From TrEMBL:
Encoding gene per record: tyrS
Record family assignment: Belongs to the class-I aminoacyl-tRNA synthetase family. TyrS type 2 subfamily.
GO MF assignments: ATP binding; RNA binding; tyrosine-tRNA ligase activity
EC number: 6.1.1.1
Keywords: Aminoacyl-tRNA synthetase, ATP-binding, Cytoplasm, Ligase, Nucleotide-binding, Protein biosynthesis, RNA-binding
Motif 'KMSKS' region: positions: 233-237
Function, in words: Catalyzes the attachment of tyrosine to tRNA(Tyr) in a two-step reaction: tyrosine is first activated by ATP to form Tyr-AMP and then transferred to the acceptor end of tRNA(Tyr).
Protein name: Tyrosine--tRNA ligase
Length: 434
C-alpha cells in the first residue's frame, strides 16, 4: 500500500472508500486528510468473547489501510462498557460481564488483532476505557445524558423494535452510546470505525465531541460479513464463523463451505481483488474454482504471524498459483496450504486423513474389552451425549473405520485403534489408555 507521503488526499480517500458501506461525512474525511497529519482512527471492541473471526477482519483490514497510509489506530478495549453490554442489533438485554471477564477475554482479542494490525508505537495504541469511564462522576453522567432525548434514543432501530413489541429495555442500555461516545472524547478521535450496526453509536460520538468542544469524528462504516449459514452476520455464538487463528485445514475447509451467492462479497470484503477480477474469476473458474482461490489465499495469509498488507491477485500468483486455472496447479503454493487442500480433497473423496487427533479411552470404560458405540463417540468428543449419538446413528450420520454404523447397540472391540467419523469431515482416532 502507498505511504501517505506518496498519496494525495484524494487518492487516499479513494483507497479508503473501497469496500466501505458509508463514510459520514465524506467531505470531512477529505479535509482531515488534507491537514497532512497522522489521524487518530478509533475502534472500540467489547471482548464479550475471546476469539476473533473474519467478520472482525473486515473492519481491522480497513484500519490496516489507514496504518499503511501513515495514520495511527487506537484499539479501545471496552472492559468497562462490556459490563453494560452493547445493545446494537439485540432483541433483548445483553447479559453484562464482570470487569475481570472482559479483561480476560481481551488478552486473546488483542493478540489476534495483531494478526492484522501493525504494532509499531507510531501506528498503534491500545487503551482500556475503564481508564476514563470508571472515574466519571454522576455530574458528568448527567451532563452526557442531557445531550439526547428519550425520543431520539427510541429512533434507534433496535430500541424502537423492542419498545413496540413490549420487550423490556433497561435504562443502563441507554447509557451505552454515551459511554462509547465519551471514548472518542478521551482520545480525541478523528475517525471512528464500526460495522453498519454501529451507525447510531458513532453518530452519538459526533454530538458528544461537539459538546466537549472537539471537532466531530468521521463515522466510517463497514458492511457486515454474513456467516457460513448464509443468513445471519458472522458470529461465534451462531457457529457460522471462521476464526482468525483456526488451524489451516479448518480454515480451508470452512472457506470451501462459503455459500456460492456470498463468494463475491467475501472476495470484496476480505481480499484486495478488484470487482472486475472477481467477476472474471467467477465466470472463468466458476464457483468451485473461486472457492479454491479464496481458500488458498486466506489460509496462507492467516497462517502467518501477520497478514500481508495486500491480499490481491499479485500475492496469489506470487505463491505459484494460476489465477483461474486452479485445477492444474494443486502442487503449487506454500506447504501449509498444500497440506490443507490435500486433506480437504481426501475427505471430499470419502477418504480418512492421516493426521487425526487421538483420544485415549480409560480401561474402566470397557466391559470385557468392549464399549457401547454411543458411549465411545461421546467419550471421543464427537457427540455431546449418548442420546445424540443414537439419534445420529439412526440417521446414518456416524462411521467407524469408514463404515456407516447402523446398530445403535453395537459393542466395539478396542483391542486395536479405531477411526471415528461424524459427518463428512470430523474425525478422531480412539485407542485404549496403556
Amino acid at each position: 500500500m502507498a505511504d501517505s507521503s506518496k498519496s494525495t488526499p484524494e487518492e487516499a480517500l479513494a483507497l479508503l472508500k473501497r469496500g466501505a458501506a458509508e463514510v459520514i461525512p465524506e467531505e470531512e474525511l477529505l479535509e482531515k486528510l488534507k491537514e497532512g497529519r497522522p489521524l487518530t482512527v478509533k475502534l472500540g471492541a467489547d471482548p464479550t468473547r475471546p476469539d476473533l473471526h473474519l467478520g472482525h477482519a473486515v473492519v481491522l483490514r480497513k484500519m490496516r489501510q489507514f496504518q499503511e497510509l501513515g495514520h495511527k489506530v487506537v484499539l479501545i478495549i471496552g472492559d468497562f462498557t462490556g459490563m453494560i453490554g452493547d445493545p446494537s442489533g439485540r432483541s433483548k438485554t445483553r447479559p453484562p460481564l464482570s470487569l475481570e471477564e472482559t479483561r480476560e477475554n481481551a488478552k486473546s482479542y488483542v493478540e489476534q488483532a495483531g494478526k492484522i494490525l501493525r504494532q509499531e508505537p507510531h501506528l498503534f495504541e491500545l487503551r482500556y476505557n475503564s481508564e476514563w469511564l470508571e472515574g466519571l462522576t454522576f455530574k458528568e453522567v448527567v451532563r452526557l445524558t442531557s445531550l439526547m432525548t428519550v425520543a431520539q434514543m427510541l429512533e434507534r432501530e433496535d430500541f424502537k423494535k423492542r419498545y413496540e413489541e413490549g420487550v423490556p429495555i433497561s435504562l443502563h442500555e441507554f447509557l451505552y452510546p454515551f459511554a462509547q461516545a465519551y471514548d472518542s472524547v478521551a482520545i480525541r478521535a478523528d475517525v471512528e470505525m464500526g460495522g453498519t450496526d454501529q451507525k447510531f453509536n458513532l453518530l452519538v460520538g459526533r454530538e458528544v465531541q461537539r459538546a466537549y468542544g472537539q471537532p466531530p469524528q468521521v463515522c466510517f462504516l463497514m458492511p457486515l460479513l454474513v456467516g457460513l449459514d448464509g443468513r445471519e452476520k458472522m458470529s461465534k455464538s451462531l457457529d457460522n464463523y471462521i476464526g482468525l487463528t483456526e488451524p489451516p485445514e479448518v480454515m480451508f475447509k470452512k472457506l470451501m463451505r462459503v455459500p456460492d451467492p456470498l463468494l463475491k462479497d467475501y472476495f470484496l470484503l476480505l481480499t484486495d481483488f478488484t470487482e472486475e477480477e472477481v467477476e472474471t474469476l467467477l465466470k472463468e473458474a466458476g464457483p468451485v474454482g473461486a472457492h479454491r482461490v479464496l481458500a488458498r489465499l486466506l489460509t496462507y495469509a492467516y497462517s502467518l504471524p501477520q497478514i500481508p498488507p495486500r491480499l490481491d491477485r499479485a500475492l496469489y500468483e506470487s505463491l505459484g498459483y494460476a489465477f483461474t486455472a486452479w485445477g492444474r496447479d494443486k502442487e503449487a503454493g506454500p506447504e501449509v496450504v498444500r497440506k490443507a487442500e490435500e486433506r480437504y480433497d481426501e475427505v471430499a473423496r470419502g477418504g480418512i486423513p492421516e493426521d487425526l487427533p487421538t483420544v485415549r479411552i480409560p480401561q474402566a470404560e470397557l466391559k470385557e474389552g468392549r464399549i457401547w458405540v454411543a458411549r465411545l463417540f461421546t467419550l471421543a468428543g464427537l457427540t455431546p451425549s449418548n442420546a445424540e449419538a443414537r439419534r445420529l446413528i439412526a440417521n446414518r450420520g456416524l462411521r467407524m473405520d469408514g463404515e456407516v454404523i447402523t446398530d445403535p447397540f453395537l459393542e466395539v472391540d478396542l483391542s486395536r485403534p479405531r477411526v471415528l467419523q461424524r459427518g463428512r469431515d470430523r474425525f478422531v482416532r480412539v485407542e485404549l489408555e496403556p
